[in-house]
Automatic annotation (TrEMBL):
Catalytic activity from the UniProt record: a quaternary ammonium(out) + ATP + H2O = a quaternary ammonium(in) + ADP + phosphate + H(+)
Residue span(s) of domain ABC transporter: 6-236
InterPro entries from the UniProt entry: AAA+_ATPase (IPR003593), ABC_SmlMolc_Importer (IPR050093), ABC_transporter-like_ATP-bd (IPR003439), ABC_transporter-like_CS (IPR017871), Mo/tungstate-bd_C_term_dom (IPR008995), P-loop_NTPase (IPR027417), Transp-assoc_OB_typ2 (IPR013611)
Keyword annotations: ATP-binding, Nucleotide-binding, Transport
Record has Nuclease as a keyword: no
Source domain of life: Bacteria
Enzyme Commission number(s) from the entry: 7.6.2.9
Organism: Sporolactobacillus inulinus CASD
Gene3D superfamilies reported for this sequence: 2.40.50.100, P-loop containing nucleotide triphosphate hydrolases
Subunit and interaction comment: The complex is composed of two ATP-binding proteins (OpuCA), two transmembrane proteins (OpuCB and OpuCD) and a solute-binding protein (OpuCC).
Entry protein name: Carnitine transport ATP-binding protein OpuCA
GO MF, one annotated term: ATP hydrolysis activity
Gene Ontology cellular component list: ATP-binding cassette (ABC) transporter complex
Length: 323
């Protein structure tokens, strides 16, 4: 059985406006990327800042490597935090930015130089040592910000929506790079995002937050296939909610199968068809409700708007009223 690297026990932090987190119990294991996911104000950044020592707590314990760090200042904790805004010093070169923390720890100059060279090799950014942050792209600046934290060899790397300022293509590249670096160095990462796609792509486990509490913890597959509540089901991925007398059926668009003829259990009329690359999104009016189905692009050519169709649900979950 794996021993936890980080343990949050009964952690509570409340702000004057009522926001914050309450009675949080959570474990993070060595070498995993654990992502806190949820909408603005759900408490995910508060938890990250609590672990980093930037927010004091009202109650509970924060253990790293078995040691309670509640009384330790951020610089005394075995953590390093990367912010959304990079926080690179504009008057320093890349080398000086990377060396800053190691110089404070009084590491030998030759060791600093070797460590920076190895890190830039890993990030494929050799030759940028003498450049200033304003000479780098947003993605390159974020790589340097992450590298600066990694060079301090933290027990836990804390990432607060680090890719949200980047465009979609660069964001995807940065996710892939982070996952490779994390695997190569076997570092423990706590990642905060409101982007469900990012959470699904990066994480070993996801913590879905809702109004200061944990709604569900699980692997991306568990969260996607077995959401424990309608809130989680609606927050992760696309979901149809089909009303019934005593509740609702939650079904993913890829689990709605359009049938030939009238062989399906449900009958409706196609209202729109959108080609999205290799597949198509088909909207069906079912008893006044909009049901979305994903179908292969080749199959969509046999369909048209206003066409009556039948369909069946391959896999779904039932939520009773109020669940």
């Amino acid at each position: 059985m794996r021993s936890p690297k980080v343990q949050l026990k009964r952690v509570t932090k409340k702000y004057a406006n009522g926001d914050g987190v309450e009675n949080i119990n959570l474990e993070i294991y060595e070498g995993e990327i654990l992502t806190l996911l949820g909408p603005s104000g759900c408490g995910k950044t508060t938890l990250l800042r609590i672990l980093g020592g930037f927010n004091a707590i009202d109650d509970g314990e924060v253990l790293i490597n078995g040691n309670n760090v509640v009384q330790l200042a951020p610089e005394k904790r075995p953590t390093a935090m990367v912010f959304q805004s990079y926080n690179l010093w504009p008057h320093m070169t890349v080398f000086e930015n990377l060396a800053f923390g190691m110089k404070l720890r009084k590491m030998p100059r030759t060791q600093i130089k070797e460590a920076i060279k190895s890190m830039l090799d890993l990030l494929k950014m050799n030759g940028t040592e003498k450049k200033y942050p304003n000479q780098l792209s947003g993605g390159q600046q974020q790589r340097i910000a992450i590298a600066r934290s990694l060079l301090l060899k933290p027990s836990v790397l804390l990432l607060d929506e680090p890719f949200s300022a980047l465009d979609a293509k660069i964001r995807m590249q940065m996710r892939e790079e982070l996952k490779k670096i994390q695997a190569q160095l076997n570092i423990t990462v706590m990642f905060v995002t409101h982007d469900q796609e990012e959470a699904m792509a990066l994480s070993h486990r996801i913590v879905v937050m809702d109004k200061g509490k944990i709604a569900q913890v699980g692997t991306p597959t568990e969260i996607y296939d077995q959401p424990v509540s309608k809130y989680v089901a609606s927050f992760i991925g696309e979901m149809n909610f089909i009303k019934e007398a005593d509740g609702e059926l939650a079904v993913r668009p890829e689990n709605v199968r359009i049938c030939s003829g009238n062989s399906g259990n449900y009958k409706g009329t196609i209202t729109s068809i959108m080609i999205l690359g290799h597949f198509a999104s088909v909207h069906i009016n079912y008893e006044g409700q909009d049901v979305k189905a994903f179908v292969a692009r080749s199959a969509s050519f046999e369909l048209c708007e206003t066409m009556p169709v039948s369909f069946e649900l391959i896999k779904y979950q039932r939520y009773k009223k109020g669940a």
